[in-house]
Amino acid sequence: MRFNKLDLNLLVVLNALLTERSISRAAEKIHLSQPATSNALSRLRAYFEDELLVASGRQLLLTPRALGLIEPVREILMRIDSTIATQPEFDPTTEQRDFTLLASDFTTTVLIPPLLASLYRDAPGIRIHLRSQTARPDEMLEQGKADFLVIPSQYLAKGHPSAALFEDEYVCVTWEGNSRVRECMSFDDYLACGHVVANFSGEQQASTFDGWFIGSFDVKRRIEVSAPTMAALPALVVGTDRIATVQRRVAKQAQAYLPIRLWEPPLKIPRLVQMLQWHKYRNNDAAVLWLRQRLIDTASRI
To answer: Which helix (H) or strand (E) holds 229?
Structure first.
């Protein structure tokens, strides 16, 4: 099909090329051969009268014209998918469909297991693919790489609908044998003890919590251990005088099998408000609406 002399099938190839910036990766993504993808790129170059992707050493760089096409092309394909390709009705008992959720290990620990049990019973053909949090979750949503974000309220992507899932509060966790914190935890204890923290980026940088902590109290915690997962923190204080500050649900689960104690923080920490977000063009997708409600219902019971 052509529109203004452009074969509209080429838009799918163009989107893959602009996203992957590699002919081989784009070909794999859209299930074309490399020669077919190269041929499509040649036709796109002729239509736009621009190279679009140019070689620079061993990588391909986007031309200014190509950079300007990223958002319009992505938006066109998202609109087509949400208004034409999507089925108007959804039957969870028979539907075969994949959904990708971007979720932290905290969410994966407390929300996803009951969700999967519910889907296994009521929607056996629904397949869930979990992806870890990234530095730019909004890009995952915009690029269609995630159907849902399960994310703290402060990280919501602008311009897309969202709904509240659940809230949680923070508690402090210590080993039962902690030699400093015995009867209660004071603010001086909190500062004097070493801390075990989550660092999801893998880089030596302050977390959002530490940024808030420094801004509120003008002091730093002494971080002695960092890990790429929140759920592991309670286990990492065992046998030490260190403290972990984690969500209460994580701490309660860990307390069932670890020799740890839970303490009310000696400082007022804002509650975590966990949100669900989806792309604005998926707002009328019956399957997205159904899974959204199932996530909300599941969150209300945890």
So the answer is: none
pLDDT tens track for 235-270 = 999 999 999 999 999 999 999 999 999 999 988 888
Q: Residue 56 has what pLDDT?
A: 79
Show me where the domains of the chain are located: 2-85, 97-167+273-299, 170-269
C-beta separation of 292 from 192 below 8 A: no
Q: How many CB atoms lie within 10 A of CB 116?
A: 14
Structural contact between residues 249 and 110, judged by C-beta atoms closer than 8 angstroms: yes
Non-local (6+) Cβ contacts of 8 within 8 A are: 1, 2
What is the predicted pLDDT for the residue at 212? 67
| Side chain identity at residue 123, one-letter code | A
Has domain 170-269 been given CATH number 3.30.70.3090? no
Cα(37)–Cα(27) distance, integer angstroms = 6
How would you classify the pairing of strands 53-56 and 59-62? antiparallel
* Residue with token string 């620079």: 56
Structure tokens at 140: 């995952």
d(CA 253, CA 257): 8
* Cα 10 from Cα 169, distance rounded (Å): 49
